[in-house]
Amino acid sequence: MTPKQGAVDDHDTRERSGMLKQLFYSGPTIEVLHEEYAKRSRIDEAAPVKASGEIRIEAPVERVWELLTDIRGWEDWAPDVHDVRLDSAVAVDSRFSWSIGRTRIKSAFAVVEPGRELVWSGAALWTKAVDRHVLEPTEDGATRHYVEESLAGLLVPLLFSSAKLNAQHQRWLTAFKAAAEG
What we know:
- The protein is of the alpha+beta class and about 180 residues long.
- Helix content is about 35%, strand content about 35%.
- It contains six helices and seven strands, in the order ααβααββββββαα.
- Strands 1-7-6-5-4-3-2 form a seven-stranded antiparallel beta sheet, with helices on both faces.
- The protein is globular and about 50 Å long.
- The model has no long low-confidence stretch (mean pLDDT about 90).
């Protein structure tokens, strides 16, 4: 074996090992994910599926916040979102459940900073996620809406990819913008 072949074999082995780690990464428990990640405005950077995106919305941050925190109202504008149930007010540790497509998600708010940031953790089947939404007013009265999410769980990369999550975010942000500006 030449030194070059050995280096290629080592690279391939490391690459396969990394793929296996991602495939079998289940992440922290939902309790730890909620308390130590979501409540600290952090997604799970080690999660195999991550996405982020942003959009400019031609509406004041107060209007955008109102729409974002009207959890029951998501069904009116969010693609594939239905059966939204909120246990109480939008507040830290209050719970809500919702479905996106055929997936039922149980969530809890982790950060509620009016007009600024909304973060929640959620679990569905064997997966766990952190969703983070940050709003920033612009000088001309519009709002920059930034979203990021991590998704982890055993074999998650076989069922869902970062590209698919990113596409889902873009659909969500586009629908959100239309609702906020309409």
